[in-house]
Amino acid sequence: MTTTTRPGHPVAATGSRRIGPGALALRQGRLEITQFLRSRESVVFTMGFPIIMILIFASIFDGTIGGGVRFTQYFITGMIATGLMTVSFQNLGIWIPIERDRGVLKRYRGTPMPKWVWFAGKVIMVVAIGIAETALLLAVAVALFDLDLPATATKWFTFGWVAVLGVTACTLCGIAISSLARTARSGSAVVTPVSLVLQFISGVFFVFTDLPTWMQQVAALFPLKWMCQGLRAVFLPESFGAQEPGGSFELGRVALVLALWCVIGLVLCLTTFRWTTKRDG
Prior knowledge:
Blueprint: E1 2-4, E2 10-14, E3 17-19, H1 21-38, H2 40-60, H3 71-101, H4 104-109, H5 115-145, H6 153-177, H7 186-201, H8 213-219, H9 223-235, H10 251-272
Antiparallel strand pairs: 1-2, 2-3
């Protein structure tokens, strides 16, 4: 049950013990993390796929791409961005339709728990798993492929805001795209192709400037390309910025585009999200 101490500030109560909004969100987040970890398929795909791809590509391509930058260094930055997109956009886009199809969201909507708590739980799960996955990727890259970690506070700050804006945009878009899936089974069919196409055209598997011009222009419309570019500014030498399409890492534009996608994603969430399947009405 819930009680309300004052308008707009609901708290849950169990017996005589009241639980504030922050505690509710943390409990929901812990529940979401537990459910994620219990799904072996999600854990293996979300956490393992980027590492497997790094091991495969690093073993195949070991040359340089200019400016003394090894392809492995370039590729790892893209896989970090991909990992963040996978845990947010792809994971939510697949699992929310499953919960909707099973009636979990319908039952949740019928409880007195504030609806924002459910969304907060998803965000907490994405942040926690995203941090763990990024740390794991960096550990593998440093230990096996001599990736140099950022040496200045400025670069760590850049890493932070690129990751935060990128995860926020991808999380909101993942929640929004989940409404396109009509059934639990169709979630993967809707989201996975979009995710893979974005990876191929955004400079993850290939050097971005080697891609056809039209493909670069399409990729520039979506967040992943800018996440990759922002992370290259963190992990690659500053001189490499001259080889970017704009002649520099364009961090100002990176921030602008990612922030714009946060707004677009929020609008899409507010206008398209459904708690029930279409057959339930």
